[in-house]
Design goal:
four-stranded antiparallel beta sheet, mainly beta
Protein backbone atom coordinates (compact mmCIF):
# COMPACT_ATOMS: atom_id res chain seq x y z
CA UNK A 1 0.00 0.00 0.00
CA UNK A 2 1.03 3.61 -0.42
CA UNK A 3 3.05 5.29 2.29
CA UNK A 4 1.59 8.52 3.63
CA UNK A 5 2.75 11.02 6.20
CA UNK A 6 0.83 11.31 9.49
CA UNK A 7 -1.66 14.20 9.52
CA UNK A 8 -0.77 17.44 11.29
CA UNK A 9 -0.99 17.00 15.06
CA UNK A 10 -4.67 17.50 15.99
CA UNK A 11 -3.89 16.75 19.65
CA UNK A 12 -2.21 20.01 20.57
CA UNK A 13 -4.16 21.63 23.38
CA UNK A 14 -6.95 20.11 25.39
CA UNK A 15 -8.56 16.76 26.11
CA UNK A 16 -10.03 14.42 23.52
CA UNK A 17 -13.64 14.08 22.46
CA UNK A 18 -16.07 11.17 22.90
CA UNK A 19 -16.71 9.00 19.85
CA UNK A 20 -20.02 9.48 18.01
CA UNK A 21 -22.79 7.21 19.29
CA UNK A 22 -23.70 6.09 15.76
CA UNK A 23 -21.14 5.52 13.06
CA UNK A 24 -19.32 3.27 10.63
CA UNK A 25 -15.65 4.03 10.13
CA UNK A 26 -12.93 2.78 7.77
CA UNK A 27 -9.34 3.05 8.92
CA UNK A 28 -7.34 5.05 6.37
CA UNK A 29 -3.99 4.41 8.00
CA UNK A 30 -1.98 3.77 11.13
CA UNK A 31 1.29 5.33 12.24
CA UNK A 32 3.27 3.29 14.77
CA UNK A 33 5.74 4.99 17.11
CA UNK A 34 5.72 8.18 15.01
CA UNK A 35 6.40 6.39 11.73
CA UNK A 36 4.65 6.96 8.39
CA UNK A 37 0.92 6.52 8.01
CA UNK A 38 0.35 3.13 6.33
CA UNK A 39 -2.55 0.81 5.58
CA UNK A 40 -2.21 -2.84 4.60
CA UNK A 41 -5.72 -4.19 5.18
CA UNK A 42 -9.36 -3.19 5.47
CA UNK A 43 -10.26 -2.32 9.07
CA UNK A 44 -13.84 -1.32 9.92
CA UNK A 45 -15.12 -0.08 13.30
CA UNK A 46 -18.86 0.23 14.01
CA UNK A 47 -20.34 2.16 16.94
CA UNK A 48 -23.99 1.71 17.99
CA UNK A 49 -24.63 3.54 21.26
CA UNK A 50 -22.19 2.23 23.87
CA UNK A 51 -21.48 -0.92 21.80
CA UNK A 52 -18.76 -1.31 19.21
CA UNK A 53 -17.28 -4.01 16.99
CA UNK A 54 -13.92 -3.89 15.22
CA UNK A 55 -13.24 -6.13 12.23
CA UNK A 56 -9.75 -6.90 13.62
CA UNK A 57 -11.52 -9.27 16.04
CA UNK A 58 -12.72 -7.52 19.18
CA UNK A 59 -16.02 -6.05 20.34
CA UNK A 60 -17.61 -4.70 23.50
CA UNK A 61 -18.48 -1.35 25.04
CA UNK A 62 -16.94 2.12 25.06
CA UNK A 63 -16.71 4.71 27.82
CA UNK A 64 -15.32 8.25 27.92
CA UNK A 65 -13.45 9.59 30.96
CA UNK A 66 -13.47 13.24 29.86
CA UNK A 67 -10.23 12.89 27.92
CA UNK A 68 -9.87 9.34 26.53
CA UNK A 69 -12.22 6.79 25.00
CA UNK A 70 -11.84 3.32 26.52
CA UNK A 71 -12.66 0.26 24.44
CA UNK A 72 -13.61 -2.57 26.80
CA UNK A 73 -13.11 -5.86 24.91
CA UNK A 74 -15.91 -8.26 25.88
CA UNK A 75 -15.67 -10.63 22.88
CA UNK A 76 -12.74 -11.76 20.78
CA UNK A 77 -9.24 -10.48 21.49
CA UNK A 78 -9.09 -9.90 25.27
CA UNK A 79 -8.09 -6.63 26.89
CA UNK A 80 -8.90 -2.97 26.94
CA UNK A 81 -7.41 -0.13 24.97
CA UNK A 82 -7.76 3.61 25.17
CA UNK A 83 -7.21 6.48 22.79
CA UNK A 84 -7.66 10.21 22.53
CA UNK A 85 -9.85 11.30 19.61
CA UNK A 86 -9.97 14.56 17.70
CA UNK A 87 -11.90 15.60 14.61
CA UNK A 88 -9.99 16.56 11.50
CA UNK A 89 -12.61 17.52 8.95
CA UNK A 90 -14.95 14.52 8.58
CA UNK A 91 -12.26 12.16 9.92
CA UNK A 92 -11.59 11.01 13.45
CA UNK A 93 -7.93 10.87 14.42
CA UNK A 94 -7.04 8.59 17.33
CA UNK A 95 -3.80 8.60 19.30
CA UNK A 96 -3.00 6.03 21.95
CA UNK A 97 -0.45 3.89 23.73
CA UNK A 98 -0.39 0.10 23.55
CA UNK A 99 0.10 -2.09 26.65
CA UNK A 100 3.76 -2.64 25.61
CA UNK A 101 4.42 1.14 25.63
CA UNK A 102 4.46 1.59 21.85
CA UNK A 103 2.31 4.40 20.42
CA UNK A 104 -0.08 4.65 17.50
CA UNK A 105 -2.04 7.22 15.52
CA UNK A 106 -5.00 6.00 13.43
CA UNK A 107 -7.08 7.97 10.94
CA UNK A 108 -10.75 6.89 10.64
CA UNK A 109 -12.97 8.01 7.75
CA UNK A 110 -16.78 7.76 7.91
CA UNK A 111 -18.27 5.12 5.63
CA UNK A 112 -21.28 5.97 3.46
CA UNK A 113 -24.41 3.96 4.20
CA UNK A 114 -24.29 4.37 7.99
CA UNK A 115 -27.71 6.02 8.14
CA UNK A 116 -30.62 3.97 9.36
CA UNK A 117 -31.00 1.01 11.69
CA UNK A 118 -28.34 0.36 14.31
CA UNK A 119 -28.06 -2.22 17.04
CA UNK A 120 -25.92 -4.67 18.93
CA UNK A 121 -26.50 -8.34 19.69
CA UNK A 122 -24.36 -10.71 21.69
CA UNK A 123 -24.32 -14.28 22.88
CA UNK A 124 -21.98 -16.37 24.97
CA UNK A 125 -19.21 -16.37 22.37
CA UNK A 126 -20.08 -13.73 19.77
CA UNK A 127 -20.99 -10.08 19.31
CA UNK A 128 -22.62 -8.41 16.28
CA UNK A 129 -23.01 -4.70 15.61
CA UNK A 130 -25.01 -3.23 12.74
CA UNK A 131 -24.93 0.41 11.67
CA UNK A 132 -27.00 1.16 8.56
CA UNK A 133 -25.68 -1.07 5.76
CA UNK A 134 -22.63 -2.22 7.77
CA UNK A 135 -22.30 -5.32 9.99
CA UNK A 136 -19.32 -6.60 11.99
CA UNK A 137 -19.45 -10.04 13.62
CA UNK A 138 -16.81 -10.95 16.23
CA UNK A 139 -16.27 -14.32 17.90
CA UNK A 140 -13.33 -15.99 19.64
CA UNK A 141 -11.66 -16.73 16.29
CA UNK A 142 -11.96 -13.55 14.19
CA UNK A 143 -13.85 -10.46 13.16
CA UNK A 144 -15.81 -10.32 9.90
CA UNK A 145 -17.20 -7.29 8.07
CA UNK A 146 -20.15 -7.25 5.64
CA UNK A 147 -21.79 -4.45 3.71
CA UNK A 148 -25.52 -5.07 3.13
Amino acid sequence: MAERRPPRDPFAGGPGIPVPEHGAWLRRGISRDGGPLLEDREVVWLQAGPYYADSRGFAGTTSFDGSQVHFHHLTGEPGEDAGTFRREGANLVERGTNPDGSTFLEVWTPLPGAEGAAGSWSGRDHHVVRVGRHVVHVDSRAGTYWRL
